[in-house]
Sequence to fold (131 residues):
Amino acid sequence: MTIPYRLALRTSIALFVCSIALFTLARQPVAYASKEDQRKRGAIDFQKKGCERCHSISGIGGDRAPDLAGVGQRRGERQIQTQILNGGHGMPPFKSVLSKDEVKDLVAFLTSCRADTASGCRQWMASPSPQ
Ligand code: HEC
Fold:
């Protein structure tokens, strides 16, 4: 059986283009930050952007709002993000205060606040509480 010349040509051109595309994609630096970096940044923002004035984590911080040590167990990513953006029930909205990345970092940090883990999410903070 003979493969028509034009079909063979088209197929090899297509393969060539695909391999160039794959090669280019594979060489891209990893564009996303690791979850760990996000959580560390989120922990810093939590202290710097005033969350800690109202909220504590494992008892360290303000007492005007619920302690967030276990918030990742009670609330999903979406709910945490919505609360940060829109506030409500006594919490001011942070939509216009924080950048999108800062919100993402805070959400990554807070979803890791599951009181059941060994050192909880305080491990991401600069000065974790003594064990
Ligand atoms: C002025 C005080 C205040 C500040 C500042 C504040 N919050 Fe809150 N926040 C509250 C209160 C009060 C609630 C309780 C809302 C409720 O009872 O539903 C709350 C609720 C939350 C919840 C949901 C808690 C739960 O158990 O469901 C999250 C998450 C949260 N805040 C994150 C943040 C983050 C992140 C920041 C900083 C960017 C922040 N808060 C800053 C007062 C504050």
